[in-house]
Amino acid sequence: MISRRMFIRGVLGCGFGALSVGAYGRLLEPRWVEINNVQVKINRLPKQFDGVTIAQLSDIHHGKYVPREFIRRCVRKVNALCPDIVVLTGDYVYRSRAYLLPVAEELSELKAKEGVFAVLGNHDDKDRTFHALSKAGIRVLINEHVPLYRKNDYLFIAGVDDLWNGRVDFCRTLKGTDNKPKLLLAHNPDIFEMTKAREFDFLMAGHTHGGQVSVPFYGPPMVYSRYGYTAGLFRKGNTAMYVNKGIGISGLPVRFCARPEITLFTLRSEKSDDAQHQNHC
């Protein structure tokens, strides 16, 4: 039989545990950024691009719960990685357009040897965001591609419109490309199901926040992907996709077992060995 004292202790213990979990999810994890290093093997990758590095930021959601100072700290973390390329995969503000110019100013500090490229997400006002990011020196890709050159060789980096609030046009995006490898930026990972075999070699997406809340031994109660693309690396034939968990939050102002993420990709040829290439600023 449980005594009254034992019962009260149990209730208090559960209460303190719930408060601790709540404080962790609200105050600690949303600012506890992890940096994931991911090697991606790409068939037909030109020798000049073997070892090229790409840093990805996604789902910034600058707003009441994602302050400017945190974004500045994340930008510094990206710059410290000395990437060859930086990619941004949508959702720069949350709810209010008043946060657009401040976040664009912070993102203007991103440094990459071969450019900073972006696509738009479902929370972004297309015209305003396009102009704000472009003014910040960021190349916004909406159903288009650009070649990236190294000496006498090249590959393509492309970006598509948002799946929910835009119009995805692969024909326009691919027009004029050849059989060189293609890197694709998209906000929503469900784009992966729309790409035909060998249209793109590597897709970088965001949108899901890794579920934002993940229950231990169960997983996220809700994922904004019809196909269950929560986070991490996926493959379909010769095509790979990585879903970044983003650094911001939306809806509930918490993260739990879904830490904010910056990803650093290293592209490798299928013929390349696994030796690490050092990258210096």
Brief overview:
With 281 residues, this protein is of the alpha/beta class. It has helices at 4-28, 68-80, 100-107, 126-135, 170-174; strands at residues 34-42, 53-57, 85-89, 116-119, 139-140, 144-150, 153-159, 182-185, 202-205, 232-236, 239-243, 261-269.
Structure, described:
The strands form two sheets. This protein has a six-stranded mixed beta sheet, covered by helices on one side. It has five helices and twelve strands. The chain is of the alpha/beta class and 281 residues long. Strand 4, helix 4 and strand 5 form a beta-alpha-beta unit. It has one domain: Metallo-dependent phosphatases (Purple Acid Phosphatase, chain A, domain 2, 4-Layer Sandwich). About 6% of the residues have low confidence.
CATH-derived architecture: 4-Layer Sandwich
Structural class: alpha/beta
CATH topology: Purple Acid Phosphatase, chain A, domain 2
Mean pLDDT across every amino acid position:
88
Chain-wise SSE layout:
Blueprint: H1 4-28, E1 34-42, E2 53-57, H2 68-80, E3 85-89, H3 100-107, E4 116-119, H4 126-135, E5 139-140, E6 144-150, E7 153-159, H5 170-174, E8 182-185, E9 202-205, E10 232-236, E11 239-243, E12 261-269
Parallel strand pairs: 1-12, 2-3, 3-4, 4-5, 7-8, 8-9, 9-11
Antiparallel strand pairs: 2-12, 6-7, 10-11
Relevant terms:
5 helices; 12 strands; Purple Acid Phosphatase, chain A, domain 2; alpha/beta; six-stranded mixed sheet; 281 residues
